[in-house]
Amino acid sequence: MPKPKEITKEKYLEMFHTMVLIRRFEERTNDLYMQGRIPSTLHLYIGQEAVATGVCANLKDSDYLLSTHRPHGHAIAKGVPIKKIMAELMGKETGACKGKGGSMHVGGMEVSMFPAIAIVGGGAPMAAGAALAQKMQKNNGVSVSFFGDGATNEGAWHETMNAAAVFNLPLLMVCENNLYAASTPFAKAFKIKNIADRASAYGMPGVIVDGNDVLAVYEAAGEAVQRARKGLGPTLIECKTYRQCGHSRSDPRGYRTREEEEEWKKKDPITNYRAWLIKEQKASEKELAAIEQGVEKEFDEALVFAEASPEPKPEELLMDVFKE
User: Fold this and answer.
1) Which among 267, 47, 12, 75 is positioned nearest to 176, based on CA atoms?
2) For the structural domain made of 9-309, what CATH number should be given?
3) Could you read off the pLDDT of 244-269 as tens digits, one per residue?
4) Which of 15, 64, 161, 233 has its CA 20 to 30 A from that of 262?
5) 141 contacts 92 by C-beta, under 8 angstroms
């Protein structure tokens, strides 16, 4: 785990806090789901925390973000308050989308995160549109599109790649290659070894990074963000990672072995980053333990807020859906 250039202790600890917050949010949310306290399904982000954290640590509140059906980690890393995410998952009117979107449509425009789009590859064209607006407004902004490996076989994704390159958009295309598109193994859907190899066909850089190494992601994303802000165009970043859970709550994971899962758990992004911080004397055991304890309190407070929040009013069902 190499030390990236120009990073402060505060940034090291900030990224640790973000990853731990994502992990505990997902674990405790899963417990609530199993208790029947959260409606609909969940697509958990456990194991992929380094990607959202490393990318978003380079962004400003005004930079746009487009997510997927697995958006909790992206939302937390971008700065959407977890109490609003929790309320959204519980269908409350104080939720990020007033309780109308649920797990797969979390967002927060106060930090420039569009409500997530659950259609595979569906967020990519919108991210290009957001980046085009930033370029036309000359506001030095950057847009980020997160997507999985399966999305890169969608036509909309390829059209986005071409448009982003042709119009030289300030866009980061971030692929979270967790080796399975739902249950389809990467090797069965691709004749190439790396998704990043596709970048050359569109005339943009393609970067491959260890998606379980938050510092590697942070550095790669930082370089891409700087390129975009300088008007040098888009970058495709492929983060090779692994989800430590099923595709959704109904997924028994019968398409992969438990031996494979155990091997990837040895590469756990949080466990390894924690050990590195202590080994390199970037933080003490006491400091990290305090962060972990604080995260539990943050979640407890978010849960109390969500459970105490009112249900949406029936007469507001169509509000914010159509614009008059």
Assistant:
1) 47
2) 3.40.50.970
3) 998 998 888 889 999 999 999 999 99
4) 15
5) no
